[in-house]
Amino acid sequence: MTELEKRMKNQQKYPQMYPERRMVVCAACKMGDLVVMSPRHWDIPMHWTVAHLKGTLKTLLAEQGFVDQWGVFFL
Predict the structure, then answer these.
(1) Whole-number Å distance between alpha carbons of 69 and 54
(2) How far is it, in rounded angstroms, from Cα 59 to Cα 15?
(3) Among candidate residues 47, 45, 44, the one with its CA nearest the CA of residue 62
(4) pTM of this prediction?
C-alpha cells in the first residue's frame, strides 16, 4: 500500500470521528465512480474539466451533490 493510499484510508474515518465538524466545501457531480468538484454545479470550470477528461462519458447526466472537507460526496 502506498503512502497516499494509507492516508486516504485513514481519512475515511474522520467523518464518523468528528461529525460536528463536517462542512460543505464545494459542489460536486458524480458520474459513476468519478467525482468532479467545482465552486458551483456545472459552472465553467466544471464544464472545462469534464470536457478535458479522456475516456469518460461526457454528459450532463450526473448526480449532483456536495463534497465535505474530507472528500466525502453526499447529496
Answers:
(1) 27
(2) 30
(3) 47
(4) 0.75
Beta-sheet pairing, 24-31 with 34-38: antiparallel
CA 38/CA 45 separation, integer angstroms: 7
d(CA 68, CA 53): 23
**With contact defined as beta carbons under 8 Å apart, do 74 and 68 qualify?**
yes
End-to-end CA distance of the chain: 30
pLDDT in tens, 24-69: 999 999 988 889 999 999 999 998 988 888 766 656 578 999 999 9
